[in-house]
């Protein structure tokens, strides 16, 4: 069984991000229990502006709600609607102006001179392929839309949006990728009292040591180590922005997940 100190460590992987106006550092590599992934939340009221950029980090931002436009930098003139996203390499910035009250989730990882600014419009008409994917089947079926896919140049980040089924599992079978990547799950469109459960356990088959994180809109959960399946309550869909950060550019791959061998049905 997990020692109390280790259990407390896993419990600390859950953070409820602020819903107050402004730019919030929710998870910061080196301060939180992670070394590669950082997560930010920007709550931008209508009519206000904010400059997005970081000297050291590449950033992938997705508009969770509202509408905005980019008014400066390499992406100036782009209009953002819900679920549109953009990427900025390190030391590059752009100014966001909210045309409606906005929530942005922003992933960050070390920029290592790979990646150029780009904007991606959310497009549900995309065929199933590199950007739009269906994962799993049955109670584990979910839809995925990449905001930063592995084929688009970047240093360490891979990011996307996932929609699970009502009362269904996501990230099933459970997987881990601790040798190569860290991950964060950032939940939205699950207004309390709707909720899901994000599960964390460190070793295959040690289900008695599972730490259960209740999740709803605004919850962010780290996965720096171990397995991390999620499941929704019967009236809820688990919906989240997930972000992978590799420890080095050669590990920036989407095929490195190791399934729990006791639950791998392939």
Note down, in words, how this protein is organized.
This protein has 266 residues and is mainly beta. It has a single domain (4-120, 128-259), classed as Jelly Rolls. Helix content is 3%, strand content 45%. The protein has one helix and 23 strands. It has one helix spanning 4-11, and strands spanning 14-16, 22-27, 38-44, 49-53, 57-65, 68-70, 79-80, 85-88, 93-98, 102-110, 118-120, 132-135, 142-148, 157-166, 169-170, 175-176, 181-187, 196-200, 211-215, 219-223, 230-232, 237-246, 258-259. Strands 1-20-17-22-14-13-12 form a seven-stranded antiparallel β-sheet, with no helix packed on it. A six-stranded antiparallel β-sheet has the order 2-3-10-5-8-11, with no helix packed on it. It has a four-stranded antiparallel β-sheet with strand order 4-9-6-7, with no helix packed on it. The protein is globular, with a radius of gyration of 18 Å.
In total, the number of strands is 23
**How many helical stretches?**
1
Mean of all residue-level pLDDT scores: 97
What pattern of helices and strands is seen along the backbone? Answer: HEEEEEEEEEEEEEEEEEEEEEEE
Terminal Cα span: 29 Å
Percent of sequence in beta strands: 35-45%
| Fraction in helix | under 10%
- Unreliable stretches, pLDDT < 50, 5 or more residues? none
The second-level CATH architecture is Sandwich
Please write the CATH class name.
Mainly Beta
Principal-axis shape: globular
Largest sheet: 7 strands, antiparallel
Major beta sheet, strand line-up: 1-20-17-22-14-13-12
Looking at CATH, which topology would you report?
Answer: Jelly Rolls
Radius of gyration: 18 Å
CATH superfamily: Jelly Rolls
- List the domain count as a whole number: 1
Structural class designation: mainly beta
């Amino acid at each position: 069984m997990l020692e109390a100190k280790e259990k407390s460590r896993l419990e600390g992987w859950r953070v409820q991000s602020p819903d107050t106006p402004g730019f919030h550092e929710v998870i910061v590599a080196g301060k939180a229990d992670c070394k590669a992934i950082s997560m930010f939340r920007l709550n931008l009221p209508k009519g206000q502006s904010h400059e997005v950029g970081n000297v050291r980090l590449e950033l992938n931002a997705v508009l969770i709600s509202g509408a905005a436009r980019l008014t400066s930098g390499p992406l100036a003139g782009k209009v953002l609607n819900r679920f549109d996203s953009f990427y900025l390499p390190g030391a590059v910035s752009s100014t966001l102006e909210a045309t409606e009250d906005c929530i942005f989730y922003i992933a960050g990882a070390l920029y290592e001179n790979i990646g150029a600014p780009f904007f991606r419009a959310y497009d549900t008409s995309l065929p199933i392929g590199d950007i739009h994917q269906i994962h799993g089947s049955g109670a584990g079926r979910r839809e995925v839309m990449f905001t930063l896919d592995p084929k688009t140049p970047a240093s360490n980040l891979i990011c996307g949006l996932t929609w699970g089924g009502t009362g269904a599992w996501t990230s099933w079978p459970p997987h881990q990728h601790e040798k190569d990547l860290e991950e964060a799950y950032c939940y939205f469109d699950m207004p309390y009292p709707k909720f899901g459960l994000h599960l964390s356990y460190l070793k295959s088959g040690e289900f008695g040591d599972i730490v259960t994180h209740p999740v709803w809109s605004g919850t962010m959960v780290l996965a720096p180590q171990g397995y991390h399946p999620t499941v929704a309550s019967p009236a809820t869909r688990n919906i989240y922005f997930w972000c992978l950060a590799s420890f080095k550019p050669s590990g920036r791959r989407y095929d490195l997940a190791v399934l729990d061998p006791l639950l791998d049905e392939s």
